[in-house]
Design brief:
- This protein has a 25-stranded mixed sheet, with no helix packed on it. An eight-stranded mixed sheet has the order 1-3-4-7-6-10-8-9. A seven-stranded antiparallel sheet has the order 14-13-12-11-17-16-15.
- A hairpin with a 2-residue loop joins strand 62 and strand 63.
- The protein is of the alpha/beta class and about 1450 residues long.
- The protein contains 23 helices and 67 strands.
- The chain is globular, with a radius of gyration of 36 Å.
Length: about 1450
């Protein structure tokens, strides 16, 4: 790159690079450039053309390193069909960039807001995009230097699609970009340089060459134009052309046309009227309020102007106060016309970049003579605006989050000030003049740097609340509080308090509320605070607590180490007490004497009994005593008002006999996880007065006799009686529960569900998995049924009514190995949002055994009481081209978009990062950071917790032991079971549990609300997405690696909701008791629900079979199973044939999971399949023993197929190619219209769109050769299973990703290569009800297909019919050897040697590698007998 500092003349040269197509190039960086032949290069500091060259030394001046590449119509934010960095930069530019990591590229966008990147709130725009300039510079290059070379007026920066700020002339854009990436978590300088040049980064940080024009913002701040105006309601005044302005609270009319120099007529609109004039087109009448009201008629030229003015004026006249809200507009000054609105009393300028100088600067704010409230928070002021002290009418002033270090003495001038908010600054002291503000009653000092309570508060007699959360007060002196006689409410959360100092015996009588949460107190004596009413002291380290009980009403002391609580005198006013998660072995006597206590929480303690007087309290309405050591509950002596009772996780063998007829108000009872063998009767007579609505009996020893005792609870709505010993449920008793809405009978020994369940007309949820049910219950005629889970049973057939209820949303029939569904049944199920079925196939005579990975998985997801599922799973048992696996879970809390996008992209990103680094901390960290970037606009405001597990060999020893690398952000967790003990592998990044993260967030001056959330949004300090909360919430993960050994039994992955209810040890014991990983995952979720969880629950169980020598042979296991189906169902033969309509017989056993939900977060697709009508005997085969390449199984003779891979042969090559799925409406996120590019070959789109767009790559896949088939269809094959007869059914397979129903296949160059190859690409994509991607394997084989695409005329399934038997090749036994040798010779002729895979080196930047090399399919046959391949052909419309 030619750069010499000879003069400052900018030379413009025309540079047309050879080999660049006009339409744009496809590259590896996800950016898309439409190249024009006349690419313009502005080169600064040169006196020669771009063709000449000289080198720039490391010490050269920054301006000599500035080069501007102007790209016209550059597509934004990454997509397929994208230009590479190599096409973007020439060789000299790349050499210059590689010379120093302090050099880089800054993307400068034009001055209009990109419609494909709409910002939140007022930042949206529909203006077309302008040119994009790529500026090569160094980290020392300032804005002033860049503007001098470009003849620009300034630069602007936008973070996370939000506000746009003008950069100071001394700021350095490239250094800002590098600092931003370093704060995200990137550590390697070369990687930072590469990421800075990635166009995807524009969703996180974007530079503009001029201030973007935003029509919507202008409309909300200022409207003006020249229109016909008439004053007054009479005809005495004539119409005249005048300049009209609507700004703030007033309508401004000039006295002369097109001029503002004359007299201005001001019409206040607050409380007035704006009405349409019927007799004139596009005419509005504006009237002020009051008896002296004035009226102006304005006739607009167009309907658009009329509607715009009517809409804005209607907002103003509807206000009750003169409020002007200009928050979040990226303003540097208020509109000058706003000063005509002299009636403004409330001015909101929050979240702007207000400056002091200028016509609309802060120095002019005293011109508002009636201003009472001024909000200047989040304006990056740096210094206190002293001009605000001149507005003597102010009663409220908010200067929070402005990096203020001092308060001027002029603050004493604001004698009318009542509220002063100074939160989120760097204040450590207050001026004495503040004490003269006699009317000040609310002072906010939270999240500053105060080390003690300011003494000036003693003079502020009107201040009754001290808000000092998040400061540095380590010692609290009660004597100083006693001198502040006005303080009643004190908030000292998050201060690092260690000691409460009380020297004198002087009582502190004025304090009524005290908040000491999240500190380090080990003892607390507040007996001198004699009028204390409410105390929050949870999450300290308290061992003793002493209080005064005279006026105490509420006590929150959970999550401490308390062994006793001393309160004197007895707190007769106490109504609410939380002592959960402590070390209490008994309850103090005074608890039973509290005459008004209504709620008592003592869960997670060491209690062995509950006092009888407490249970018989006449005031107690809610008692939570779960997770203790209770062995019995005392009898009730009299009628009590108890409404909720939680006794789960104790050691109860029975309940009080009189419980239900003494506690007649009891509506909620949870006694799960006890040792109950029976339940008490509902009444003493046949007539029951029970009002019980929710009953949880999961995890006891109840039998079918308890059914008769449930009849009396006729108001029961929720019944969980899972994992007991029920052999049946009395039919006559079930019919009596007519109000039942939710029934969970899972994990029992039921063989049938009574037909009387049809009497429960309000039933909407039936969960009965893990039983022995053989007959489908009569529930599909219930009018409100929504969810039916009958998985892991022994169903053989389903009797269906003529029509299904429209309310049915989910039906889970997985794990029923003998279930056979007819084509008619599947068509009847087609409207169900989520249908989960097994994928089964059968073996043929040529099949042999193959190596399978030493692990298998199962997972479960439950929506709980949410109306949507905001969790998703990524599960790939065969990851990469070796024996590896990848598992992940994602929890979006309240959003479903981000989890679905992550499970579509994260596995692919991991594989890409593995090509760059073999260091676990590096590739895992970069995987999370890259996934965070790829979320695009979806990640600006939404986020998700994420956990990723990668099982692999050590790079130094590829054939050695396995290792497990785990990375996570947020609250998703992983637990490894080793020798029956749980080993946590993840770190919970929540403010409650992570002290160092709390300190980091506090130092960055985030506001942590009382519910312990960052800015009131999330309790997590690390998430993928939610980039607008940066730098408080970061995407950098915790990474941990652990070698695996033969003692490792399984891995449990779960989200926050699971592990909040199920402890690590209980989770391990639960999985150990259930052999099937899928059934174990379902049990974990069912237990969490029965323990009281209402949120989305997600659990994944990975069963490990790691041998000592790291071979993949499965240890011999017993074939007996206590409950449920075998893990691997019997496969079915599927043979391709002519393309006439296919039929699916009941004997085929083909299963799929169908998702037909039409929503803004799913993409529709339609899939077809054929299945054999003729099949071998349906006798289920036992699960085979897993074999590895070190210990191959014996095989029978078979026919060698060219391209097949046997044991010990060359592995299939791993091929990578970027793919894309559209997650937007008509336009993609990068500005590319849906018609801008030709469709990819081999990929069909049905035009379905979703709200969010992200750059998605298909999951890592493996290409192996197969049998040639018709090019009209993709061949979608399942993995085979091993069988003891020695036959192998290992089919050629490609693992691909299904994104929300859209099958992502290989595209572009791969399709062309595959058509030339004698082998056929085998594609198999699976999608779960929420878009989860799972690889086909033997223990968990599901397909979920979205049904949003129109159905074809030939029925639900459309694919080639079965091949005629006479068309199949039959080889006599005597000729098998000769045929095998001939086929081997032919395969050697058609096969080609594979190209070696050369991953990019870390030493070279990404722009040196425009695209990863593509590889041919492996056509080299392996020695030994080969399998006959059976294929499934799916006619797939994406």
């Amino acid at each position: 790159m030619a750069m010499e500092d000879e003069d400052n003349t900018a030379v413009v040269a025309t540079n047309t690079q050879p080999g660049i197509k006009k339409g744009g190039d496809v590259g590896d960086n996800g950016a898309c450039i439409d190249r024009q032949p006349d690419t313009v290069v502005h080169q600064a500091g040169l006196n020669q053309t771009a063709g000449r060259g000289s080198r720039l030394g490391p010490g050269a001046h920054a301006t000599t390193g500035i080069r501007v590449l102007k790209q016209r119509n550059m597509k934004r934010n990454g997509s397929r069909g994208c230009g590479t960095r190599k096409t973007r930069f020439g060789s000299r530019e790349r050499d210059w960039l590689k010379g120093d990591t302090q050099r880089g590229c800054v993307c400068l966008y034009g001055g209009t807001v990109d419609p494909q990147l709409p910002a939140s709130g007022p930042q949206a725009s529909s203006t077309p995009q302008t040119d994009l300039q790529l500026v090569l510079c160094s980290t020392s290059t300032t804005v002033e230097e860049l503007c001098a070379q470009r003849d620009g007026k300034g630069l602007y920066v936008q973070l996370h699609g939000d506000l746009i700020r003008r950069l100071d002339t001394s700021e350095r854009p490239l250094q800002m970009l590098y600092n931003y990436l370093a704060a995200m978590g990137y550590t390697e300088p070369i990687r930072v340089q590469q990421e800075a040049a990635n166009s995807d980064l524009s969703c996180l940080i974007r530079f503009y060459s001029e201030r973007p024009v935003n029509a919507d913002q202008q409309e909300r701040t200022l409207l003006k134009g020249v229109f016909s105006v008439r004053k007054g309601k009479t005809q005495l005044h004539k119409w005249a052309e005048r300049q009209v302005i609507l700004c703030g609270t007033c309508l401004i009319v000039a006295s002369v046309k097109d001029s503002l120099t004359g007299k201005m007529h001001i019409l206040p609109l607050v409380g007035g009227k704006v009405e349409e004039v019927k007799r004139r087109q596009h005419c509005l009448m504006f009237s002020s309020a009051g008896s002296q009201a004035q009226t102006y008629f304005v006739n607009f030229d167009t309907l658009a102007d009329y509607q715009r003015w009517h809409r804005q004026a209607s907002k103003v006249v509807s206000q009750t106060v003169s409020l002007v809200d200009l928050s979040c507009y990226s303003l540097e000054a208020v509109p000058e016309y706003l000063f005509y609105s002299q009636d403004v009393t409330h001015l909101n300028l929050r979240h702007n970049f207000m400056s002091l100088q200028g016509p609309g600067g802060l120095l002019n704010l005293p011109r508002f003579s009636q201003l009472k409230s001024l909000n200047l928070s989040h304006n990056r002021l740096g210094v206190f605006p002293e001009c605000a002290c001149e507005i003597v009418t102010l009663t409220e002033l908010n200067l929070s989050c402005n990096n203020l270090h001092t308060i001027p003495v002029q603050i004493g001038n604001l004698h009318s000030l009542q509220t002063l908010s100074l939160d989120g600054n760097h204040l450590s002291s207050l001026p004495e003049e503040l004490g003269g503000l006699s009317q000040l009653n609310n002072l906010g000092l939270s999240f500053n740097n105060f080390s003690h309570i300011p003494a000036v508060l003693e003079r502020l007699s009107a201040v009754d609340k001290l808000a000092m959360a998040g400061n540095r007060v380590e010692i609290l002196e009660l004597c100083s509080l006693a001198r502040m006689s006005n303080l009643k409410n004190i908030d000292l959360r998050l201060n690092g308090l260690h000691w409460l100092k009380n020297i004198s015996l002087e009582p502190v009588s004025q304090v009524t509320q005290l908040d000491l949460r999240y500190n380090y107190l080990d003892s607390l004596d507040l007996s001198s605070v004699c009028n204390l009413e409410i105390l929050h002291c949870q999450r300290n380290q308290l061992t003793t607590l002493t209080l005064s009980g005279f006026t105490l009403r509420m006590l929150h002391a959970n999550s401490n180490r308390l062994t006793t609580v001393n309160i004197y005198p007895v707190p007769n006013q106490l109504t609410h007490m939380d002592l959960s998660q402590n070390l209490l072995e008994y309850l103090p006597d005074w608890v039973c004497d509290c005459g008004k206590i209504e709620m008592l929480d003592v869960t997670h303690n060491l209690l062995s009994e509950l006092p009888s007087r407490l249970l018989n309290s006449l005031s107690l309405r809610k008692l939570l005593a779960g997770n203790n050591r209770l062995q019995r509950v005392s009898d009730l002596l009299d009628h009590i008002p108890l409404e909720a009772l939680d006794l789960q996780h104790n050691k109860l063998a029975e309940l009080p006999e009189s419980l239900f007829y003494k506690a007649l108000n009891l509506k909620y009872l949870n006694v799960s996880a006890n040792a109950l063998e029976s339940i008490p009767p509902s009444s003493q007579s046949e007539e029951s007065l029970s009002t019980l609505q929710e009953l949880y009996l999961t995890g006891n020893n109840l039998n079918e006799n308890c059914g008769a005792l449930l009849v009396g609870h006729q108001n029961l709505r929720v019944l969980h009686i899972a994992y007991n010993q029920l052999l049946s449920f009395p039919a006559s008793k079930l019919s009596k529960l007519e109000l039942l809405e939710e029934l969970n009978l899972s994990g029992n020994k039921l063989k049938t569900i009574p037909s009387t369940v049809s009497s429960c007309k309000k039933l909407h949820t039936l969960i009965a998995h893990s039983n022995h049910i053989t007959v489908f219950p009569e529930i599909l005629n219930l009018p409100e049924i929504k969810l039916v889970d009958l998985s892991c049973n022994e169903l053989t057939e389903i009797q269906l009514p003529d029509s299904l209820p429209a309310t049915l949303q989910e039906l889970d029939l997985t794990g029923n190995s003998s279930l056979m569904l007819e084509h008619k049944t599947l068509n009847l199920f087609s409207h169900i949002t989520t249908l989960k079925l097994d994928q089964k196939s059968t073996t043929t005579a040529g099949d042999t055994q193959s190596a399978s990975p030493p692990w298998n998985h199962g997972y479960s997801e439950m929506s709980g009481q949410r109306n949507k599922l905001c969790v998703s799973v990524l599960a790939v048992d065969r990851f990469g081209d070796g024996v590896e696996a990848c598992y992940g879970i994602f929890d979006g809390d309240r959003n479903e978009e981000v989890p679905r996008l992550l499970q579509c992209t994260m596995g692919d990103v991991l594989w890409e990062e593995l090509q760059h680094s073999s260091i676990d901390n590096v590739y895992m960290c970069n995987t999370f950071l890259t996934s965070h970037r790829k979320l695009g606009m979806a990640g600006q405001k939404l986020g998700a917790s994420a956990l990723l597990c990668y099982i692999h060999h050590e790079p130094s020893d590829p054939g050695g032991s396995f290792s497990l690398t785990v990375a996570n952000v947020g609250t998703c967790q992983a637990v490894l079971c080793r020798d029956g003990r749980p080993i946590p592998l993840s770190k919970v990044y929540s403010l409650e549990t992570c002290t160092e993260e709390m300190e980091r967030v506090k130092l960055s001056k985030a506001i942590i609300t009382e519910d312990n959330k960052v800015s009131g949004v999330t309790c997590c300090s690390r998430l993928l997405g939610c980039s607008y909360l940066s730098p408080w919430v970061l995407p950098k993960p915790w990474v941990h690696s652990k070698p695996l050994c033969s003692q490792d039994e399984f891995l449990i992955l779960g989200n926050r909701a699971l592990f909040e209810r199920v402890s690590y040890q209980e989770a391990v014991c639960t999985v150990q008791a259930v052999r099937d990983p899928r059934a174990a995952a379902k049990k974990l979720c069912s237990l969490a629900q029965s323990y009281g969880c209402k949120d989305n629950i997600e659990a994944a169980v990975v069963s490990l079979h790691i041998a000592e020598d790291s071979c993949t042979c499965e240890p011999p296991v017993s074939t007996t199973e206590p409950r449920g189906p075998p893990p691997a169902p019997v496969p079915v033969t599927v043979t391709p044939g002519p393309s006439d309509p296919a039929t699916l017989s009941s004997s085929s056993g083909v299963v799929s999971e169908f998702n037909s939900e039409t929503s803004a977060s799913e993409v529709g697709s339609e899939a077809g399949s054929t299945a054999s009508d003729e099949h071998p005997s349906s006798v289920p085969a036992s699960r085979p023993e897993r074999r590895c390449s070190l210990h191959p199984a014996t095989t029978l003779c078979g026919i060698m197929v060219p391209g097949s891979v046997g044991a010990g042969t060359h592995p299939g090559l791993f091929q990578r190619q970027p793919s894309c799925a559209t997650f937007s409406s008509n336009h993609s996120d990068n500005g590319l219209d849906s018609d801008d590019e030709a469709p990819l070959e081999g990929v069909i789109s049905n035009g379905s769109k979703v709200e969010v767009e992200v750059d998605i790559h298909c999951c890592a896949f493996q290409l192996r050769s197969g049998v040639s088939e018709s090019p009209k269809h993709f061949d979608l094959e399942k993995r085979g299973y091993d069988y003891p007869n020695g036959k192998m059914r290992r089919q050629n397979s490609v693992v691909v990703s299904a994104t929300n129903g859209c099958l992502l296949a290989v595209c572009g160059r791969e399709i062309t290569d595959l058509k030339k190859s004698p082998s056929t690409c085998s594609l198999f994509g699976k999608k779960l009800s929420n878009g989860s991607v799972v690889a086909p394997e033997d223990s968990h084989n599901l397909i979920e297909v979205a049904l949003e695409a129109p159905k074809k005329k030939s029925g639900y399934f459309t694919a080639p019919a079965q091949q005629d038997p006479e068309d199949q090749l039959i080889v006599p036994p005597s000729l098998e050897q000769e045929v095998r040798e001939q086929l081997r010779g032919q395969s050697l002729l058609v096969s080609a040697p594979p190209l070696p895979s050369i991953p990019p080196s870390l030493k070279d930047p990404v722009w040196d590698h425009p695209h990863p090399p593509s590889f041919a399919s492996n056509l080299v046959p392996g020695p030994g007998p080969a399998p006959t391949l059976q294929q499934e052909v799916y006619d797939t419309a994406l």
